[in-house]
Amino acid sequence: MRFTCALKTVAIGVALTASGLAYAQGGGGGGGEDVKKAEAAVRAQENAKSLGTDLTPKLPPATVPADPQNIWDLDLSSGGRVRIQLRPDIAPVHVERIKELTRQGFYNGLKFHRVIPGFMAQGGDPKGDGTGGSTMPDLKAEFNPMPHLRGTVSMARAQGEDSANSQFFIVLLPRMQLDKKYTVFGRVIEGIQYVDAIAQGEPPANPTVILQASIDSDGKPPVTAPVAPTPAVPSILPATPGQ
């Protein structure tokens, strides 16, 4: 009987050794748990290597090199051209939508219908009241880690996360509470003074208009606001000499 028990003990010890498990010296139960945790960590690292994955999260760069194919030009009636660096690396579908609508001339003549001081300027609605959009289907959200800083350009949407279409907004001052709730797709790199000059209101009494939207690589010259004609001054004819 004792011989049989001894054989069982040896068999169990051999099985444990073969499975790669080891007892911690000292006889304490806590030591064994530490060894198990260490082995689990090693196995996780080996699995990550075998899958070719990096466990460290990578953030997109804060800025990217200027590329004319990814610069959105907005000629505003508030005074000049605003140049926006588009970011297809973080929101490829939204950038493609902006480019497509721009080349259709969709944004030309649209107003900034909702402009809140110290917050943002919103445009891109053909109805001009915040309820409109293009005839294209709504977009699936592409929320990303980019923060809503001054000059950030993000897509406006309704309550549903996947309801962005054509409307966008330009952030006037940092609003981090919007992060990962709206799709950031670009940032102003030139002409922020013209964004600051956009008429305020919900809606503004005399709204700022997008005179022309274009992609920089298309080479369209800036469009300026038409100059109001100068009223004609009636000429004063000399008095007719008396007869």
Spell out the blueprint of helices and strands.
Layout: H1 2-18, H2 29-51, E1 71-76, E2 81-86, H3 92-104, E3 112-116, E4 120-123, E5 152-155, E6 168-171, E7 184-190, H4 192-196, E8 210-215
Antiparallel strand pairs: 1-2, 1-8, 2-7, 3-4, 4-6, 5-6, 5-7
Catalytic activity: [protein]-peptidylproline (omega=180) = [protein]-peptidylproline (omega=0)
Keywords: Isomerase, Rotamase, Signal
Protein name: Peptidyl-prolyl cis-trans isomerase
Average pLDDT value? 83
Portion of residues within helices: 10-25%
β-sheet strand percentage: 15-25%
In CATH, what is the homologous superfamily of the largest domain? Answer: Cyclophilin-like
What is the CATH domain class of the largest domain?
Mainly Beta
Q: How much is the radius of gyration in Å?
A: 32 Å
Task: Based on Cα principal axes, name the global outline.
Answer: elongated
* Number of DSSP-assigned strands: 8
Largest sheet: 8 strands, antiparallel
Separate helix tally = 4
Distance between the ends: 156 Å
SSE series? HHEEHEEEEEHE
Provide the spatial order of strands within the biggest beta sheet: 3-4-6-5-7-2-1-8
Find the CATH topology of the largest domain: Cyclophilin
Structural class: alpha+beta
Task: Quickly count the domains.
Answer: 2
Protein name: Peptidyl-prolyl cis-trans isomerase
Domain PPIase cyclophilin-type: 80-232
Region (Disordered): 216-243
Enzyme class: isomerase
Please explain how this structure is put together:
The protein is α+β, with helices and mostly antiparallel strands. It has 2 domains: 2-51, no CATH class; 68-218, Cyclophilin, CATH 2.40.100. It is built from 4 helices and 8 strands; from the N terminus they run ααββαβββββαβ. The chain has helices spanning 2-18, 29-51, 92-104, 192-196; strands at residues 71-76, 81-86, 112-116, 120-123, 152-155, 168-171, 184-190, 210-215. The chain has an 8-stranded antiparallel sheet. Strand 3 (112-116) and strand 4 form a beta hairpin. The longest helix has 23 residues, at 29-51. The chain is elongated.
